[in-house]
Design a protein that fits this description.
alpha+beta, three-stranded antiparallel beta sheet, 16 helices, about 45% helix
Amino acid sequence: MALHVPKAPGFASMMKDGARFFSGLEEAVIRNIGACKEFSETVQTCYGPNGMNKMVINHLDKLFVTNDCATIIRELEVEHPAAKMLILGSQMQENEIGDGTNYVIIIAGQLLKEAESLIRMGLTPTEVADGFERALDKALEILDSQEMCCREIKDIRSIPEVMDPLRTAVASKQYGNEDFLADLIAKACVATMMDKSEKTSFNVDNVRVCKILGGSLFSSDIIQGMVFRRSVESNVTKKENCKVAIFTCPVDAMQTETKGTVLIKTAEELTNFSRGEETQLEEQIKAIADSGAGVVVSGGKIGDMALHFINKYGMMAVRLTSKWDVRRLARATGATALPRMTAPTAEELGMADKVYIDELGDTEIVVFRVGGNDSKLATIVVRGSTENYIDDIERAIDDGVNVYKGLCKDGRLVAGGGATEIELARQMAAWGETHPGLEQYSIGKFAQALEVIPRVLAENSGVKPKEIISKLYAAHSEGKRTMGFDIEGESGDIKECDQAKVLDLLISKKWALKYATNAACTVLRVDQIIMAKRAGGPKPRDTSGPMDQDDD
């Protein structure tokens, strides 16, 4: 009879072999804080215009060279559960605002770093978390006050007005090219908002990016309408002021629903049978041509026989492989995507000013240009020397477009360059001293944690951070609320960020502080980590991502 070895008493006796269990301050809380600090310090060096790039190679061996925090955390498969909490907060910021992902992780990491010193002093993690939440409410109240808002954008269709916040957002990714890119983004976003009858609702998907290798960044341009990296199927390669018919089905001879057997006895019957099929297809194409359509767009294949008749009736044929592109083109031209190959009615046809093929570098493109106020979409054609460089430009454009979306929600702007954080820290520290309880320590540390933003900006620019922070505090105590770190000036300079047009979205700061504090408090409130034994076999990849390669 086999000898039964009893399990050790305690929590381990309840779990399967291989399960891991950590509890208590040192094992759970301090260990979690350590992991979050490490992770936060990793992405800190990417922050600001002088931030360094990270070279990330993902699980598919794809190389990313970028300082965009959203891309870095998406491609790094972080295992630690506490660090994942920070990532979730950062991803929520990406979904809500589209910018400020790095800001969330830096602030959350710094809050946890400050919390560690309080815990070592003897405060309980719960007291620290309560103090942080109280401090967050006060911080949001100060942010909403009139004195913090240094400018408000009233007309989001005015390009000069929206340029300043866009320039600040783009400068953090593409320092040196921010003026050119901000101008492109502002024009593209405003072009999709020309319909004055609509409210100020802006869809990020309305500004597309088409990346074409070759040339320089300054060869980039905006096209009202859509651009596809492919050629046309037909002989006709150019149409002006034409109507567009869009089909989601293949443009070819109709296949029958059921299988049938045809018994042919003579050669004459065979000729009549194939001629009948041709005649039917010709009638369908002729009906499309008679409806006034000059361009036929198909989401499926275009058969050889159908192409012959399309050429015969002088129409242009374009095949799109992505169903998302078909839908966007339908939205851009005002057409209705038809599921069957029938002649479209006048309401189902779209309009385009010009449809033509062009060649950029060695890439053939089809351009659907929709002018005037009809176009709901604009495409930015990005040129560049390498794929990594173009990808980084696309990320900068994505940030700029998201800032424009934020402006549509709330046009209030605050000073950038660490000015807002120092002013918040100054007011929070003074407010914290009025509290008699233990919360005053947490509120004081919350205020200190906000200093991390100007400090990181200074460190990444190679300047002594303590010098900058003391200069900023001195300026702010004199009532100069918009004084921030001057990245372009001599070593250790500060400047009026409002006059220098370094402006951030107020809504972005609000949500970032909320998500950072919530993530930090969640990590602090964990007192036990229980990890079950892993199931055997490789871990399945999360495939719930975007379906279209252009949508990542």
